[in-house]
Amino acid sequence: xxxxxxxxxxxxxxxxxxxxxxxxxxxxxxxxxxxxxxxxxxxxxxxxxxxxxxxxxxxxxxxxxxxxxxxxxxxxxxxxxxxxxxxxxxxxxxxxxxxxxxxxxxxxxxxxxxxxxxxxxxxxxxxxxxxxxxxxxxxxxxxxxxxxxxxxxxxxxxxxxxxxxxxxxxxxxxxxxxxxxxxxxxxxxxxxxxxxxxxxxxxxxxxxxxxxxxxxxxxxxxxxxxxxxxxxxxxxxxxxxxxxxxxxxxxxxxxxxxxxxxxxxxxxxxxxxxxxxxxxxxxxxxxxxxxxxxxxxxxxxx
Length: 302
Hints:
41% of the residues lie in helices and 20% in strands. It is α+β, with helices and mostly antiparallel strands. The longest helix has 22 residues, at 274-295. The chain starts with 14 loop residues before the first strand and ends with a helix.
């Protein structure tokens, strides 16, 4: 099999030779006590279980979970599932040929929606913010090429809703679109505050994840989480920005960001504004519906 062959195209009886991400690696024992490796391999199209019965310990020493591996094996059917019976496996940087140049991000799932189109929607939503301070903040974020690139590649979660490259941009556009519609229904809402908060509510995600053979956490993401990272990013940006939101506007925006997973995360343990409550509900709506569509209704109701 060529390296371009995707997991979703594999069928029972296929010979496999290619590069995949190893996202699970367990050393188990058969009923007779012999060791074997139980693996899960993934590319952008899906995942497949794999196992190695011969030379399990030798093969296990050649790679670790989270690395790209070069695999040789054969696809078999086991209990109605496809499984790769592994004959050889090693991390990519030990493999000969061009496989060592493979980009790890190319093995992560990616958004189905067109990212250029989503980028355009994001710019349009920013243009509907008219408060000078909030608009200056959004314009500065849009002008940051590194941040824009991070928005396009960052997932929204590791294993939950929008857990793929571009998921953050897709979720952000969805929540901001819902916010705009809600403001049309409830004219007493501060539309500039709610729309700005919807656009930046998950901006801390851009500092939370590492992207390799799987989605991991940065040290800051592990220790602080995206709420605190988002607060830090916005405080830094506002401090460096002439003509940004005034003190009252910054505080209202930060309260929305810190409480978008519930009032328990905000100072005082409560929503400070109707806009903060609205953002919490809209974020949960998009995350819940997307989770149900991707993982089933039970996931969407968690």
